[in-house]
Amino acid sequence: MRSGLTGFVAALAYNPEFAARGVTLNSLLPGKFDADRLAGTLASAAQKTGQYVDKIHQAQQN
C-alpha cells in the first residue's frame, strides 16, 4: 500500500494542471510504525532464523 500511495501522490504532484493552479503535494512516509503488525513480523522472522527480535529490528533499521 505504501508504494501505491507514493506512486499516486507522485503522479498528482507532477500533473501540470495542479502546478498551473499553484497546488503542491507532499508525501511524508516515515519508516516502519511500531505497531502490532511490525511486532508480529519481527517475532515471525526471529522464530524462523533463531535470532533475537531486537537484533532483527536493529538490522532492518540500518
Main β-sheet description? none
- Which value, in Å, is the CA radius of gyration? 18 Å
* Head-to-tail CA distance between termini: 22 Å
Return the average pLDDT rounded to an integer. Answer: 86
SSE layout:
Layout: H1 2-13, H2 16-20, H3 36-49, H4 53-61
Short description:
The chain has helices at 2-13, 16-20, 36-49, 53-61. It has 62 residues and is an all-alpha fold. Helix 3 (36-49) crosses helix 4 (53-61).
Structural descriptors:
mainly alpha
Describe this structure in words.
With 62 residues, this protein is mainly α. The protein has two domains: 1-30, no CATH class; 31-62. The protein has four helices and no strands. The chain has helices at 2-13, 16-20, 36-49, 53-61. Helix 3 (36-49) crosses helix 4 (53-61). The longest helix is centred in the C-terminal third of the chain and has 14 residues, at 36-49. 2% of the residues are buried.
